[in-house]
Specification:
Radius of gyration: 19 Å
CATH architecture: 3-Layer(aba) Sandwich
CATH class: Alpha Beta
CATH superfamily: SGNH hydrolase
Number of domains: 1
Structural class: alpha/beta
Distance between the termini: 45 Å
CATH topology: Rossmann fold
């Protein structure tokens, strides 16, 4: 009877994911730019990233926890649960665009991102912070402060930085709103993200 019980317990333990197994997710935590607004899921840069990583990192699973319209305050409310649910080894943080479009103070955005990054680091995840830039019609001072925010946070927390998500995308590869990249732009975004992400991946 004791031998049988030991076998049952051993099988149950083997069925449970270990921390090392669970902690192989890459969590994408962003807004509509990462949620695939206006395009199909298959065309989104997050899905393209998953397909690309499968070539050399079949053990990695990309989990997209992005929500269209998300702000840094909304992200702050969600990050704890997302980290607990997905136990990621890497978190890609892409938030702040909606803060800027709503005219949220840079100080408030900085405070929220500070906590989000700190929580990800506390959960033993590496962080890739993706920078956002605001159109110049929001005022020179505001756009400069916003642009400088992401390098500042990356230095403070010693995390990887992708300076600007939409770098190099031509005007014709944006949707009609001139804010969201079209399907044609997604491969370039994926390659830009992958370039910054690769140093954080297991060797």
């Amino acid at each position: 009877m004791k031998t049988f019980l030991k076998i049952v317990l051993l099988l149950a333990a083997l069925a449970l994911p270990t921390f090392s197994q669970a902690a192989k997710n890459i969590l994408v935590f962003g807004d509509s730019l990462s949620a695939g607004y206006g395009i199909t899921r298959d065309d989104s840069w997050v899905n393209l990233l998953q397909l690309e990583l499968k070539k050399n990192y079949p053990q990695l699973e990309v989990v997209n926890a992005s929500i269209s319209g998300e702000t840094t305050s909304g992200g702050l409310r969600r990050i704890g649960k997302a980290l607990q649910q997905h136990t990621p080894s890497v978190v890609i943080i892409e938030l702040g665009a909606n803060d800027g479009l709503r005219g949220t103070s840079v100080r408030e955005t900085e405070k929220n991102l500070n906590v989000i990054i700190a929580q990800a680091r506390k959960a033993n995840a590496k962080v890739l912070l993706i920078g956002i830039q605001i159109p110049p019609n929001y005022g020179l001072d505001y756009t400069k402060q916003f642009r400088a925010l992401y390098p500042k946070l990356a230095r403070q927390h010693s995390v990887a930085l992708m300076p600007f998500m939409l770098e190099g995308i031509p005007p014709e590869q944006f949707q009609a709103d001139n804010l969201h990249p079209s399907a044609a732009a997604q491969p370039l975004i994926m390659r830009n993200v992958l370039r910054s992400l690769t140093p954080l991946l297991p060797r």
